[in-house]
Amino acid sequence: MLKINHKKNISMSKSTTGYTLIEIIVVIGIMASLTAIIYSSFDGSKANSRDQQRVADISAIQLALEQSFNKNGVYPIDLEALTIKPQNATNPFISSIPKDPSTGKKYSDPTSTNSGYFPMSKSSISKDCISYQLWTTFERNNIYIDQKKGFNATDYQLPNNLYECTDTMATPPIIHKKINASATVSPLVYDVMP
After folding, report:
1. Mean pLDDT of 100-124
2. N or C: which end of the chain has fewer CB within 10 A?
């Protein structure tokens, strides 16, 4: 008699639903590339946003400077004077001097390297500031770039016979930084004058 083996031939087949190492590496590479593109785009928009904030800050300070000039006939030697309430006024010209969005330093801070206030007078010994230059440095090229680049820091006498308006008798002495208009200055300097 012939015996038939009814045992099923069970073979151990491996599942083919997993991913190979190459496929995983390719997916990770694509995700990393997309993340880098999105991050760089986001980082650029954050820099543009900070530059827009700088323009708004400079405009607010400039408005306060013009209000001060209309009341006093001169611009202040120090921007902090704008935060003091003038006589017979209900409010100061500006509540506080804005801070640079990336460094956190006030635009009036003498240690700031990317912004400053530069008052001018008609005499080298006068405290009567009749003009000024207010400036900041942008992070990126944009439509607000001012190509004037400020004044040359090597000359004490400025164009149109204007001088740096300082108060050396103050404690500590108030001495302002000039913008160097030479070719070494960043082309991203944005400066305003009255």
Report:
1. 83
2. N
